[in-house]
Amino acid sequence: MSLNNGELSERKKLILKAIIDAHIENGEPVGSRYIMQNAQIAYSSATIRNEMAELEELGYLEQPHTSAGRVPSELGYRFYVDTMLSHYAMTQREIAELNNLMRVKQAEVDTILEQASKLASALTNYTGISVKPKPTAASISRFETVWVDSRSFILVMVTSTGVAKSKFVRLGFDASRETAARLAAALNANLAGLSADQITLPAIMRMEAAMGIDSVLVNPIIKCIYETMSELDDGDVRFEGINRLLQYPEYADIGRFKRLLGALEEKQDILDLVSGARADNVNIYIGSENTVDVMQNSSLIFKTVHRRGHTVGAIGIIGPCRMDYSRVVTMIEHLATQVSSMLDGDESQTNLLNGGEHNAGKG
Amino acid sequence: MSLNNGELSERKKLILKAIIDAHIENGEPVGSRYIMQNAQIAYSSATIRNEMAELEELGYLEQPHTSAGRVPSELGYRFYVDTMLSHYAMTQREIAELNNLMRVKQAEVDTILEQASKLASALTNYTGISVKPKPTAASISRFETVWVDSRSFILVMVTSTGVAKSKFVRLGFDASRETAARLAAALNANLAGLSADQITLPAIMRMEAAMGIDSVLVNPIIKCIYETMSELDDGDVRFEGINRLLQYPEYADIGRFKRLLGALEEKQDILDLVSGARADNVNIYIGSENTVDVMQNSSLIFKTVHRRGHTVGAIGIIGPCRMDYSRVVTMIEHLATQVSSMLDGDESQTNLLNGGEHNAGKG
DNA sequence: GTTTAGCACTTCACCTGTTTGAGTGCTAAA
DNA sequence: TTTAGCACTCAAACAGGTGAAGTGCTAAAC
User: Over the stretch A185-200, which tens digit does the pLDDT of each residue have?
Assistant: First the structure.
């Protein structure tokens, strides 16, 4: 029977693992006879049946209907993932494909994340996900104004994370050298050091009062800063290979798939999930552990990606609860690590940095 | 019988329209009796049956199986769309929602397109699509170098379409005022006027030779230009509300839906399609008219979006061939026009233009 | 006390044949 | 040229039967 401390006996663990492995393999409920024959378990089917019944009572297994085999419950998967995940050895081909990522042309973070997600999807055969979270921690550390001519300049906002946004600003009038200098100084004095959510109307009004500069000048710049911050503040979630999910019988029910798709388009939930995730390890959310409850019957596995110690995104996959966790975890682990080191190494090698569109006054 | 010139008799047209309307309405094969009763066609079911048989022979109708009603063929839909599309009058609510789009906060083109696509999806209940095509026509009209300090500057590339890209460039050494000036001049002399695909290795080598500047300086800039052009050159296709399609019986077959999804992820095909589309009107691709042949049984409807006379994108929807064309076409027409005028009006009102990320040397 | 063989029972999946209803094509009459 | 009538076709829905897989339980074996 069950041990007094509530832990599973070794034999139960063995049987549970065998059942989960088998189910992951073929997707069907697994019966006692199958376990007896295919796993190295030297007990009769009757004994295994008894253990299975107890495992079900403990919540690790479920039975679709009376005369069906057993299927792992979410608790079962969780236990499996937490305590008996075996190490997956990547094949040569997989390693090669992963290394290939390094050859990707130098690109901005977004592009790299997307590429990685695509690769994750291809390697695991699940839906890849790339997340660019809200950099809530980011604050503006300084402003630079670079004047193109007397009535237009590029406003560069450098954030504490080392990322900068630039905006092309055109004034309706000529600004003197002196005004220009005063502008930059005032911006730095009043807004530098503030985080995205601190740049609010009061802060701006304070600045406007303190600056003593024509509001005609300040106004468009304020608008510009606002915009930029909101752009910076916007997270994004992208998926690659949603169609891959359709090959799994778990999603043969079109209704369930539809609900999952709907949930995925509510990107905010996923952003929240990723924002609250651990940075040091692969995160695994199984079934209803997902806050998004429509995502039941699906697992979300991802790892955050870093650059110079800051989280700049996450990559992972979404698939049915029944998935080859050891393989997937290994893949995501490697991939995220690879991307992180790529982002860091990248920095030291080159001076070319990602830029953006401006609109020129005339062609 | 069929008229000698191959055109359909009025009665055939009437019956064809009645069948298509009915099929669009309820999605099922429509029979002769139904047409006789529900449409204003004062002939017996037998007569209608005869006409239907002929319409089938002419290719406008199809029969799923012997004892089923008729279903419009792609040719039938095409004929319907080309010659008998009735004007759809938008409801107050629809007009309100469309006008609401105008209130969207000032944002970059991408965001606006995406918003519009979302709205299109919501209004039509099909999958929205937003396309940012390759601006193949774009050429670089001039370069500007804006020096931040002696070893870093922002390289601004203004394209003929009035859009500009900026890149932050940091050199490993100090550049003299004179070198800086020579650089800008050389860039303009050798690369200005070239289109994206003309900036090739030969052109660059020519410039490198002609410039007579240290290649240490030229090298990172070349890299930078290359990158920028490829970014500029990259189109993008985005979808909103893919799950909406699943409500239609056309996509109840999970295999077909899977193939469609796969095709949609091959964004290049759609980019090509949009690039070759007419700019002045709503484009309708029905079923296998799509070059992407997996998209059979689906229609793609879109209209290009303009800014100052240049195509900057397209918005539309994807749905089953059986769709309420008149309604959808009206929607997309209005939406795209709205966005275009918004982009143009927007320009004249504000001086704030979309910018991008730079990476600062240090935080 | 633990394990196992044996057996009755349950449930689903599959196959079969039958019925039903919608819709057609054809023919002959109006 | 149109229409009423009728035989025919086919898919979908229904009902019953069979078999396989797998369980739970009991009693015997270790």
Answer: 877 877 777 766 666 6
